[in-house]
Amino acid sequence: MSIYDERPWLSLYDEGMATDIEVEYDNCLEMFKASVGRAADRPLIHYFEKTFTLAEVDRLSDALAVGLRDLGIEHGDRVAVYLQNVPQFLLSMIATWKAGAIMVSVNPMNRQRELELLLGDCDAKVLVTHESLYGEVAASVLPSTSVVAAITTSELDFLDTVPELLSQAVRQRHDGTHDLLELVHEREGRQLEPPTLRAGDVAFLTYTSGTTGPPKGAMNTHGNVVFNSQTYREWCGLNADRDVVLGVAPIFHITGLIGHLGVSMLTPMPLILGYRFDPAVTLELIERHKATFTVGSITVFISLLNHPDAEHRDVSSLTRIWSGGAPIPPATTDAFEQKFGAYIHNIYGLTETTSPSHGVPFEKRAPVDEAYGALSVGVPIFSTVVRIVDEEGNDLPPGEIGEIVTDGPEVVPGYWEKPEETANALPGGALHTGDVGFMDEHGWFYVVDRMKDQINASGYKVWPREVEDVLYEHPAVLEAAVVGVPDPYRGETVKAFVSLRPGQTADEAALVTFCKERMAAYKYPRSVEILTELPKTVTGKVLRRELRANEIAKTGT
To answer: Which has the closest alpha carbon to 296: 275, 273, 270, 322?
Structure first.
């Protein structure tokens, strides 16, 4: 028996925390309806000044489900939802389930080529989107896809007053589209026969970011979604009578889908939506609605930390904070706690693990590995076994670096209509993550980096994360990213890209010297480029591949 089968990390769980949990519901719709049954009048969504109760969301999604059926949606069909953080997203998701169909979440930053690729991959039958996105992007794409009907909506729907963030929004109906509110109002009071949904049925497709090739649709099942919604509730100690979720992650993304929508429907508790992340608006919404819990990228918390409004907003209610999706520099957690009084707990997962597979328990603090300067991503969640393996798939002992392999109820069964990719990534049902890390002797896990991002400088292996964490210790550095760039002598060499804190200054020589004094000679960056802002995904991950590609294009190497 391997040490991993014995789950040595269980001793690190909070006192009284369960080590395994049973999935409470067969499917997401049953989970939602149970919450409606016991708390129909409880708020579920706060959208600026508008509040929706569970009963209202149930009633509106009933009518929208009838509308989807009238547009031809049958059991197992795909409904693509191409929206920002607005209530219509949740209404569309629940309505899709009520029609027995599969929701496909689409990044609202996607443009024509990306949207066409995704719609073609999943063969979506209906698209739900903003009026603006339809006109700017979707209208030119849909004729070449399987989509037979487009439902459009506005971010101004349901609002009596226009918030400043949406002051530039314009209502615009498009020929050939169906208005979401009209579909709903014309069918109010009607509902479909409840569909038969099983735990193994696909609840939604979430497309990977495509860092290692074309995006693939991870098949997040109803069982996956219910399990990890429960994980957030139990792991983070959330309570229906106390907690309010701050929706800072994009809800098309797996973090938002589970850590915002799923756990809100399950608990149930209110979810604050604000169209898209804006630090000033977010600080105001925390204060107004007394948000207590959130999970988001560390770039969100860096933005809040450095925004001038943070000095006069009361955010003391926000005490349960987790961050995932991008590395967390220890210096940032320290600065955030010093300013706001709340500790940022690490959490780790992938699209294919339906959000978390690891987390730091609420009453614990993540240790920092001395060799790499990295904060632990925590310990495996309930009912989950995680191994560190070598290139041949053999288990490695504590302290040794290898690939992280995850097996548990949160792991998807595969990718949509991609059996070869499924077999490669999920042999035997366990997910080979492509992330490199290790487990220490106590059971804490650490992510060192992505396998593909390792830099080989004159035969020495350099992990970008380690260099980035040193740069974050410099008082002038706001964000940092490190990549390997071609070098005629060393093969590859280390280059850093940074943005600076407002009002701070630093030049390339100073930053190189700062790292040189703190790192082995082969690790420190030979050059540092200062940018106004680093390129990032919508979820806050810095795009190392874009920086690397730009550098190669500049040098012609």
So the answer is: 322
List Cβ<8 Å contacts ≥24 apart for 366-369: 366/444, 367/440, 367/444, 368/330, 369/440, 369/446
Q: Which of 292-306, 395-409, 414-428, 481-495 has the lowest mean pLDDT?
A: 481-495
Domain membership of residue 478 (yes or no) is yes
**Start-to-end C-alpha separation, the chain:** 49
In a domain, 380, yes or no: no
Nearest partner of 484 among 531, 449, 534, 516, judged by Cα:
449
Instruction: Let me know if residue 546 belongs to a domain.
Output: yes
Domain membership of residue 482 (yes or no) is yes
Whole-number Å distance between alpha carbons of 42 and 45:
9
Domain tally for the chain? 1
List the CATH number of the domain containing 506: 3.30.300.30
Whether residue 259 contacts residue 249, with contact meaning beta carbons closer than 8 Å, is answered with yes
Q: Which residue has the tokens 């060393």?
A: 490
Can you tell me the distance from the alpha carbon of 7 to that of 379, in angstroms, rounded to the nearest whole number? Answer: 10
In this prediction the pTM is: 0.84
β-bridge mates for residue 221, sequence order = 202
Q: Which two tokens stand for residue 363?
A: 């009453």
Residue 185, helix vs strand vs coil: helix
Range of the domain at 463: 456-555
User: Model confidence over 295-351: pLDDT tens digits?
Assistant: 998 889 989 999 999 999 999 999 999 998 777 778 889 999 999 999 999 999 999
Residues 6+ away with beta carbon under 8 Å from 541: 209, 297, 325, 326
CA atoms of 554 and 257, how far apart (whole Å): 38
User: 385 is written with which tokens?
Assistant: 């076994």
Residue 175 token pair: 């020929």
Return the residue matching tokens 């999970």. 295
Strand order in the sheet with 50-53: 50-53, 43-47, 271-273, 245-246, 293-296, 320-323, 344-350, 355-359, 379-380
* Sheet of 527-530, strands arranged across: 477-487, 491-500, 527-530
Alpha-carbon distance of 22 to 516, in angstroms, equals 51
Strands 344-350 and 355-359: antiparallel
Q: How many CA atoms lie within 13 A of 507 on its CB side?
A: 1
Q: How far apart are CA 550 and CA 556, in angstroms?
A: 10
Tokens of 111: 């443009």
Q: Residue 24: name the closest of 11, 16, 35, 8 by CA.
A: 35
Give the integer Cα–Cα distance in Å for 394 and 451.
17
Mean pLDDT score, 513-527: 85
Q: Which two tokens stand for residue 54?
A: 């569970």
Nearest Cα residue to 100 out of 199, 172, 201: 201
Residues with Cβ within 8 Å of 421's Cβ and at least 6 positions away in sequence, in order, are: 216, 414, 415
Distance CA 310, CA 154 (A): 30
